[in-house]
Design brief:
The structure holds 2 protein chains of 2 kinds. By secondary structure, chain A is mainly α. Chain A contains 9 helices and no strands. Chain A has a single domain, classed as Ferritin. Helices cover 67% and strands 0% of the residues of chain A. The two termini of chain A are 33 Å apart. By secondary structure, chain B is an all-alpha fold. Helix content of chain B is 55%, strand content 2%. In chain B, helix 4 runs antiparallel to helix 5 and helix 4 runs antiparallel to helix 6. The longest helix of chain B has 27 residues. Classes of the chains: A mainly alpha, B mainly alpha. Chains A and B meet through helix 6, helix 7 and helix 8 of A and helix 2, helix 5 and helix 7 of B.
Chain lengths: 220, 240
């Protein structure tokens, strides 16, 4: 689709471009040595890095490339969860009609989001976690309800980090969050729900985001 | 920069969210949304009003907020888009041409856009541009024409907010703007679904520049009288 191919590279550019100077890849990884244990955690997978992020809390420091990366680790978990959720539901929930069309479209988008974030994180991207969605991917009604929860959560999680990101990474994330909002509204419309219940979408913290993902089915 | 801004992130976010809802428009959104659905949802209606209250910062409660000139310019640009949308939905609701799900959706979206207008007016105070005069040329009097125009307006608003968000200097204003940005995306998807086209076309929504958006809005000829900045303290110009 138009414009999709360059988004991962746009996000990588966003991450590797600094306001003051361009930082080559080698220096990019060196700067992470300063992050100490967070760097070690990055090599061990996303979940532990998320723990580090949660310890940091949401009153984060002034936006920086290192902080962008911690936030990208959070949304990586989110995108992994969305991809796995739609994959399993399309196999097991007996989806039909517009609900199936929605799931297929959303899955395609989430795969591209995941690829963009993995690409931006490079070797720092954690592996795919494990999931147990239980009954939520086993029937149309449970899928529909969970899809709304998950997409609303995604919107709130991205919005919650907006003020913590550098302008370049915020611009890249903004291209994703409105698509998550479209998914949320679409799923709500199919369910006969109010698609946009709030005049301003309420943000959530990183901690709330991770708790929400665990409730939905993220296991590690 | 606003007076209440912290140099470190956004530590007072919870306080920011709990600012009292003093605006009838916000209650209107909540009541409209509640009558439009029988069930509540995760992150749903209980948060209505609280979210919109994000725009009413301590700074606005005290006095005129000290916003950067560039932020005032962006907020006025957003205000014109909100005026456009609010007037459009209000006129469509009053025309009586909308029925069923479309009428119900238009009531919720219209109330939301009016709430956005009121919030921006409050935030900008005397710096706010006036409401332009609109002529929607009949598109509010026919349901298909209404939906087609609504899709265009909402997609435009998403691209416009996305283009400006990274340029905002004030973090509280940025937090509110991104929350509005995703609501406009919900509206776009909602109107698209009602119109019968794909609510989410691409994996990545692209931003649009202010120049491009302004050109598109001008091409509709819906704005028949351009808004003017309210007079500042500058003395009037005399030509003679």
């Amino acid at each position: 689709m138009k414009g999709n191919g360059d988004a991962p590279s746009a996000m990588r550019r966003a991450l590797s471009s600094d306001q003051s100077s361009y930082e080559p890849a080698a220096k990019f990884s060196r700067s992470h040595a300063i992050m100490g244990t967070a760097v070690a955690a990055a090599g061990l997978g996303g979940a532990r890095l998320i723990d580090r992020l949660l310890q940091t809390g949401d009153a984060l420091a002034t936006p920086s490339k290192a902080q962008d990366e911690r936030i990208l680790q959070l949304v990586l978990q989110l995108e992994y969860t969305e991809v796995a959720f739609y994959e399993q539901a399309l196999r097991n929930a007996g989806l039909q009609g517009e609900l199936r069309q929605f799931a297929q479209t959303a899955l395609g988008h989430e795969r591209q989001h995941l690829a963009a974030i993995r690409n931006a994180l490079g070797s720092k991207a954690g592996p795919k976690p494990s999931f147990d969605f239980g009954r939520n991917t086993k029937s149309q009604s449970a899928f529909q309800e969970t899809a709304i929860k998950l997409e609303d959560l995604a919107v709130a999680a991205y919005n919650g980090q907006a003020t913590n990101l550098t302008a370049a990474t915020l611009a890249a994330a903004a291209e994703i969050v409105s698509v998550e909002a479209r998914h949320a509204a679409w799923a709500r419309a199919i369910a006969g729900e109010v698609a946009a219940p709030d005049p301003v979408d309420k943000p959530i913290t990183a901690k709330e985001a991770v708790e929400g993902l665990h409730e939905i089915g993220l296991k590690s | 920069m606003t007076a209440n801004e912290s140099p470190h992130g956004f530590p007072n976010f919870d306080a920011f969210l709990t600012v009292v809802d003093r605006d009838a428009a916000l209650r209107e959104v909540r009541e409209t949304a509640e009558t439009s659905t029988s069930r509540r949802r995760f992150l749903g209606l209980t948060a209505a009003g609280v979210g919109a209250a994000m725009l009413f910062t301590d700074a606005t409660a005290k006095a005129a907020p000290r916003l950067a000139v560039s932020d005032i310019s962006i907020l006025n640009y957003a205000l014109v888009l909100e005026y456009l949308q609010a007037s459009f939905y209000t006129e469509a609701e009053r025309s009586g041409a909308l029925t069923g799900k479309t009428a119900a959706a238009a009531r919720v979206v219209g109330a939301t856009e009016r709430a956005h207008v009121k919030a921006f007016l409050k935030l900008l105070g005397s710096n706010a541009v006036k409401r332009p005069a609109f002529d929607f040329q009949g598109v509010t009097e026919n349901q298909r024409a209404f939906l087609k125009t609504a899709v265009a307006f909402e997609d435009l608003a998403v691209a416009a907010y996305k283009g400006q968000a990274p340029k905002l200097r004030s973090r509280p204003v940025l937090a509110a703007a991104v929350g509005i940005h995703s609501v406009e995306a919900r509206h776009a998807a909602w109107m698209r679904e009602l119109f019968g086209i794909t609510p989410a076309v691409n994996a990545f929504d692209k931003p649009a520049s202010r120049t491009r958006i302004t050109r598109i809005v001008a091409s509709t000829h819906f704005i028949v009288q351009q808004p003017k900045m309210k007079r500042r303290r500058r003395p009037p110009d005399y030509s003679g």
